[in-house]
């Protein structure tokens, strides 16, 4: 690794090798580089961006020992493997760096993605300053704290929310235990409730997580997660290491998560830097693993303002053939223009769009544009885009909020359900789509967002959020100030 000459403090960034984690880490690197720091990226061999696209950064490969089988494991099991496999190679690389004559005068500061917690462990062991970058929302982290308790009390793994109408927002978890005991003694009334048709979707408000209004048990990242044991293991590892970092950087926006930030801060007496949205501080940087198809921008240029629905499920979510079919006809019948990202391999059983229903492409050729991967930040900032059908990954969520685009929230897994619930019920910037995809409902939901008065109001509110975001990143704004404080703080860390 070449040392970047004549720059400030050396920062070694350790991104988690998935697009939704690589992006915020590279954005942070770009921002800190502009503040005069020298940036090196310690990356796994699995999934890393092309170093030649980032001439300002140095790159340090870490042997990840990931086998072919492990690379197809579920996300969380894969994270566990990475943390086991990378620890020793990372430690050896760091020791090599420290022994290097050039670096004797200054040890690096490690900034690692919270999912790459092996890096924090190694840094702690070698007595190096280290900072966590949290690429998810704060509320998720606050929620993680309640899992061990829920597990101890026998509520996890939660497999079926139909048991949960017993809960009530006002009921403490102790009371819930009593209620569940009561349920076992006399299950007639709750059973009747379960079997009775519900008056409206909102009447399912009884399954709220105590103390976390308006989250329901089904919104918890752990709900129905196929490998909840692995998830609990990652959380336990992660939470046990949280005492190590010198500080935490959040890719969130103060006004969005004020109360969660306060709760978290009360528990962890270390400096916090709230820098979100990182994408607005580093608008030009791209760390896409897939090639962005920029032809969709000239297609957008031909569309009317606010008329296009942008559809994208991020880098991990996938669909089956039936869902693809329902989505396709729902979009076609909505009569709205759409820009649809279908990642290669994201439809099970096909390479790309071979499974789109016969006749679909011809029907919508005027009104639709399908790409393998879009320059999402540019798309969301485009005047023609008036709505975003999203899986609600945290990056997509903050990118959409920072461009004033309201959403249709169709979460896929883990933290995305929390974001979807906040978007639809707290910030009121999105419509929750909670049922199986069905073309009639897809069409109605798209029209609700794109052409109804309700959608118009949401778009108006989204624009107000965008303005607030802009204030945060301007001189004097909270994210702007936090960034300057972070730069000062890093410079004062032990050298
Ligand atoms: C994952 C998790 O799913 C998410 O919940 C977690 O918070 C972060 O890691 P992912 O599913 O890929 O991320 O979603 P998201 O967080 O939205 O990140 C996707 C990134 O890819 C965004 O920065 C988005 O701008 C970018 N993208 C997506 C593109 O550049 N082009 C596309 O066509 C689609």
From TrEMBL:
Example GO molecular function: quercetin 7-O-glucosyltransferase activity
Annotated InterPro entries: UDP_glucos_trans
Entry superkingdom: Eukaryota
Pfam families: UDPGT
CDD domains: GT1_Gtf-like
Keywords from the UniProt entry: Glycosyltransferase, Transferase
Coiled-coil spans in chain: none
Family in the record: Belongs to the UDP-glycosyltransferase family.
Name of the protein this chain belongs to: UDPGT domain-containing protein
Source organism per UniProt: Cephalotus follicularis
């Amino acid at each position: 690794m070449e040392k970047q000459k004549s720059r400030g403090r050396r920062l070694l960034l350790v991104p988690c090798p998935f697009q939704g984690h690589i992006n915020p880490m590279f954005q942070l690197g770009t921002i800190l580089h502009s503040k005069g720091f020298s940036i090196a990226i310690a990356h796994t061999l699995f999934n890393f961006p092309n170093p030649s696209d980032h001439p300002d950064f140095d790159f340090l490969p870490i042997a990840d020992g990931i086998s072919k089988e492990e690379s197809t494991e579920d996300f969380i099991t894969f994270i566990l493997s990475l943390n086991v496999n990378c620890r020793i190679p990372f430690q050896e690389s760091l020791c090599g760096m420290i022994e290097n004559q050039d670096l004797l005068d200054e040890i690096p500061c490690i900034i690692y993605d919270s999912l790459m917690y092996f890096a924090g462990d190694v840094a702690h062991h070698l007595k190096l300053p280290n900072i966590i970058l949290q690429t998810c929302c704060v509320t998720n982290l606050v929620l993680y704290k309640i899992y061990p308790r829920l597990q101890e009390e026998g509520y996890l793994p939660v497999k079926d929310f139909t048991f949960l109408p017993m809960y009530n927002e006002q009921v403490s978890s102790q009371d819930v235990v009593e209620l569940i005991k009561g349920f076992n003694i006399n299950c007639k009334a709750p059973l009747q409730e379960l079997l009775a048709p519900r008056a409206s979707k909102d009447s399912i408000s009884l399954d709220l997580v105590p103390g976390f209004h308006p989250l329901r048990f089904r919104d918890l990242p752990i709900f129905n997660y196929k490998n909840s044991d692995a998830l609990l293991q990652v959380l336990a590892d992660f939470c046990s290491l949280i005492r190590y970092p010198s500080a935490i950087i959040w890719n969130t926006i103060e006004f969005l998560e004020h109360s969660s930030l306060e709760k978290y801060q009360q528990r962890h007496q270390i400096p916090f830097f709230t820098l979100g949205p990182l994408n607005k501080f580093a608008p030009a940087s791209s760390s896409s693993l897939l090639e962005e198809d920029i032809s969709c921008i000239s297609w957008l240029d031909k569309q009317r303002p606010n008329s296009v629905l942008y559809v994208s499920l991020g880098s991990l979510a996938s669909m089956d053939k039936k869902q693809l079919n329902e989505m396709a006809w729902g979009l076609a019948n909505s009569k709205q223009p759409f820009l649809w990202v279908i990642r290669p391999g994201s439809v099970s059983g096909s390479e790309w769009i071979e499974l789109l229903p016969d006749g679909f492409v011809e029907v919508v050729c005027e009104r639709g544009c399908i790409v393998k991967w879009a320059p999402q930040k540019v798309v969301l900032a485009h005047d023609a885009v008036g709505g975003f059908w999203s899986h609600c990954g945290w990056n997509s969520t903050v990118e959409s909020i920072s461009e004033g685009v309201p959403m249709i929230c169709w979460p896929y897994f883990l933290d995305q359900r929390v974001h979807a619930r906040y978007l639809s019920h707290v910030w009121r910037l999105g419509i929750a789509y909670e049922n199986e995809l069905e073309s009639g409902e897809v069409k109605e939901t798209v029209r609700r967002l794109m052409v109804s008065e309700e959608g118009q109001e949401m778009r108006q509110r989204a624009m107000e959020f965008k303005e607030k975001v802009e204030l945060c990143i301007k001189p004097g704004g909270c994210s702007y100030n936090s960034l300057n404080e972070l730069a000062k703080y890093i410079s004062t860390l032990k050298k």
